[in-house]
Design goal:
- This protein has about 450 residues and is an alpha/beta fold.
- Helices cover about 35% and strands about 20% of the residues.
- The protein has an eight-stranded mixed β-sheet with strand order 3-4-5-2-6-7-1-8, sandwiched between helices. Strands 12-11-10-13-14 form a five-stranded mixed β-sheet.
- Helix 3 crosses helix 4 and helix 11 crosses helix 12.
Length: about 450
């Protein structure tokens, strides 16, 4: 009745209506929901927050998300609902939506939006009336933070509502579905197959990755599975693109000139100074420079570029890379006067912010997972097993197979390198960054590999 009164235009999905129906029952004070990303959880949270705030005078609504970006998403849902309801605005004309919540201009009656990154945000919230605590992406919230929220729920008829995609098989949210039934009044678990508007995307992802893939099981089937240390590249996946010529099957690009690019991961000592040369969508070759002074290495790379008529060069700028990149650019200016061939030198820092920072902890992770998808689609080729490329491919396979996919506290994916420095793999990523048009300081938009194509 409340929703029809204030938001007659809002059409709920069946699963959302089921949850709101359960919340209307006074005995359901502690509820947990697990559903896929994109299902509509945040909009549902915004509706629940406004409902509780309007029907419970003197109440505190505390909305927690692990990171501020998720808080902002919830705030925009609240703002959208508020703007779409003239009746709600006329009934509560003094209310204001602020950056950190809703002010009613009545002391103690308020909605607070907070990030869980600072533990202090989770403590000290007290309500005269029945409180509501909602947690978005609850699988990312540590147990200690969850325990701190309990103090806000001490007033009579206070409510707790948590929602999330599935996470690892541990923590308070996992236990809500695996044993702590005594604490929760109602739990809901929905898979993508139960949500019609996700069905087609779910079908495509399952076809691409396979139904046993841990990300399919967690993100789409709402299973609590551990993907914290899964290998990204299998030797079979890598072998499948060795010697592949993907441009031969590209009808649109057939006959077009293919730009030659170079990725360089310089090293002073211990590690190998590696080069990766690409032509179009294929890695032409890998090379290892001799262990000599960096200035000599710059000269060798200039000769390499000149001999192979390479247009664009990216240099790993971490550590000594920035100085090397500047020196290389100076040398190529002199080369341009001789050969009248222009070159572009771009520093690349793998630790910089990813384009989709909510999913990926850094650029390296985003590029690596993009490379994995290109290999799965056979849209990228590696050198044939000939000559010195045989040993380079064996080493590349060890390096890529040794990389593990971890999950940060915020739920983003992060790649962990193998114990031995992955120099050839890093040179490949540096070359890939050129194809994506990365700016030297990450200021330009970076298209994910899967969108732009390598």
């Amino acid at each position: 009745m409340w929703l029809e009164t204030f938001f007659p235009h809002v059409k709920l999905h069946e699963w959302q209506a089921e949850i709101l129906g359960a919340l209307a029952e006074p005995q359901n004070l502690r509820c947990a929901v697990v559903a896929p990303r994109g299902s509509g959880k945040t909009k549902l949270l915004a509706i629940i927050c406004l409902w509780h705030l309007t029907v419970n005078p003197d109440s505190l609504v505390l909305a927690i998300s692990p990171i501020w970006r998720q808080v902002e998403t919830l705030r925009e849902e609240l703002r959208s609902l508020w703007s779409a309801s003239p009746r709600l605005r006329s009934l509560f004309p003094a209310w204001e939506i602020l950056a950190d919540g809703i002010s009613t201009n009545v002391p103690g009656w308020r909605l607070v939006l907070a990030s869980a990154v600072v533990a202090a945000n989770l403590e000290g919230g007290h309500s005269t009336g029945a409180a509501l605590v909602v947690v978005d992406e609850a699988a990312q919230l540590p147990d200690g933070h969850f325990n701190s929220l309990q103090g806000t729920l001490t007033t009579h008829n206070s409510r707790l509502f948590v929602s999330s995609t599935a996470g690892a098989p541990s923590g308070f949210l996992h236990r809500a579905f695996r044993g702590d039934f005594w604490y929760w009044d109602k739990t809901f678990l929905f898979a993508a197959g139960q949500i019609p508007h996700l069905a087609e995307q779910f079908r495509r992802e399952k076809s691409r990755l396979g139904e046993d893939d841990p990300h399919i099981r967690r993100q789409w089937n709402s299973e609590f599975v551990d993907v914290s240390e899964s290998s990204i590249f299998s030797p079979e996946l890598i072998e499948g693109v060795v010697g592949l010529e993907p441009d031969e099957n590209d009808l649109h690009g057939r006959g077009a000139p293919r730009v030659r690019r170079l990725g360089w991961d310089p090293a002073r000592s211990g590690d190998s100074s590696a080069l990766c040369m690409t032509v179009g969508s294929r890695v032409e070759r890998f090379d290892i420079l001799p262990s000599v002074d960096l200035l000599i290495q710059v000269g060798l790379v200039v000769q390499y570029i000149h001999a192979r008529r390479i247009a664009d060069i990216a240099v790993d700028s971490i550590g000594l890379g920035n100085a090397v990149c500047s020196r290389l650019a100076e040398q190529l200016v002199g080369l341009h006067r001789i050969c009248a061939h222009e070159h572009r030198v771009v520093p690349f820092n793998a630790s910089h912010r990813a384009f989709d920072a909510e999913k990926y902890a850094n650029k390296k992770t985003e590029l690596l997972l993009g490379l994995m998808r290109l290999m799965q689609d056979r849209s990228v080729g590696l050198p044939a097993r000939e000559g010195d490329q045989v040993q380079h491919l064996e080493r590349l396979t060890r390096e890529l197979s040794g990389m593990k996919l971890l999950e940060t506290f915020r739920g983003a994916s992060r790649v962990e390198d193998p114990a031995t420095s992955p120099d050839l793999a890093d040179s490949l990523l540096v070359a890939l960054s050129l194809r994506e048009g990365l700016a030297s300081k990450g200021g330009a938009r970076m298209l994910p590999l899967i969108e732009a194509g390598f």
